Amino acid sequence: MDQYAGETFPDEELEKRYQRYREIIKKFTLMSDTFMRNIFKHIECVEYVLQVIMGRKDLHVVDSVVQKDYKNLQGRSAILDCVALDIENKRYDVEVQQKNEGASPKRSRYHSGLVDMNTLEAGHEFEELPDSYVIFITRGDVLGLGLPVGHIGRKIEEVDQDFGDGSHIIYVNAAMQDEETELGRLMHDFHCKDASEMYSEVLAKRVRELKETEEGVYSMCQEMDEIYNEGILRGEKIGEKRGEERGITIGEERGEKKAKKATAISLAEMGLPVEQIARGVKERVSIVQTWIAEGMTVVK
């Protein structure tokens, strides 16, 4: 029996979810958040992607973390997709964005500041601050320049000279898949559902593990079910907590509905059908459809 939130469901319901997850996994590409995170759990995949984007075969990654939670001095946090460190102590934040709104110039600036703020330790001189690179791989042409890649750095405008602060922002346009170039082939690979269609053997090997082996598929199903269940539980807990704090039923209902909406949007981005999402969050299909439509305009 599968149990959560105080309720028990027959095994067949869990099995149905896993069957649905398996179909979704077949459609995943590296542009999909959940799948990309699992690809980047292998450091050789992170290293290969950075080597191509940076145009440096000698770039070697010594550490990488997915879903890194960074906070600023005011306590505001941002979860970075993948933070990596190379052998030269340079820092990289690799972000994969489905929507252009999630890769705005202000957001890249904020990410750059977070990386710096969480790098230099107390007692170290400012000159010890390592070079940092915030890299946004975007589905569309965010910069609107028709370029496959755009490098942004501070300059002294009057003399058109690099400022030299070691802070770099790079936008990679995943829509440009010129297979005559290594970067274009990488972007091609980012859109492949099947490992056999990929140019990079490094990435293809990891895709096969996650899509074509029982162990890999099962681990992906487990992660997707954790997202599903944690979202439902979070919604119920938030609703209960807010209801208790306000001492009125309306507090509970508003808190629960807000969390349910966030959960529904997350599950929709994973590819689950609206009917199944509605059953999961225990709301009418029409309400869930409205939430998902509204969520399309929200920054990732």
Layout of strands and helices, then pairs:
Blueprint: E1 2-4, E2 7-9, H1 11-27, H2 33-39, H3 43-54, E3 61-71, E4 77-86, E5 91-97, H4 105-117, E6 132-138, E7 149-152, E8 155-156, E9 161-162, E10 167-173, H5 182-190, H6 201-212, H7 214-246, H8 249-269, H9 274-281, H10 285-295
Parallel strand pairs: 5-6, 6-10
Antiparallel strand pairs: 1-2, 3-4, 4-5, 7-10, 8-9
Describe what you observe in this structure.
The protein has 300 residues and is α+β, with helices and mostly antiparallel strands. The chain folds into two domains: 2-26 and 214-295, no CATH class; 29-192, Trna Endonuclease, Chain: A, domain 1 (3-Layer(aba) Sandwich). It has helices spanning 11-27, 33-39, 43-54, 105-117, 182-190, 201-212, 214-246, 249-269, 274-281, 285-295; strands at 2-4, 7-9, 61-71, 77-86, 91-97, 132-138, 149-152, 155-156, 161-162, 167-173. It has a six-stranded mixed sheet, sandwiched between helices. A two-stranded antiparallel ribbon has the order 1-2. A two-stranded antiparallel sheet has the order 8-9.
CATH arch. level architecture of the largest domain: 3-Layer(aba) Sandwich
Terminal-residue CA separation: 34 Å
Task: Write down the secondary-structure element order.
Answer: EEHHHEEEHEEEEEHHHHHH
Give the spatial strand order of the biggest sheet. 3-4-5-6-10-7
Biggest sheet architecture = 6 strands, mixed
Integer average pLDDT: 83
User: How would you describe the shape?
Assistant: globular
Number of domains: 2
Please state roughly what percent of the residues sit in beta strands, choosing from under 5%, 5-15%, 15-25%, 25-35%, 35-45% or over 45%.
15-25%
CATH fold type of the largest domain: Trna Endonuclease, Chain: A, domain 1
Structural class: alpha+beta
Radius of gyration: 21 Å
CATH class of the largest domain: Alpha Beta
Counting DSSP H or I runs of 4 or more residues, the number of helices is 10
| Secondary structure: number of strands | 10
Low-confidence regions: 1-10, 247-252
Helix content: 40-55%
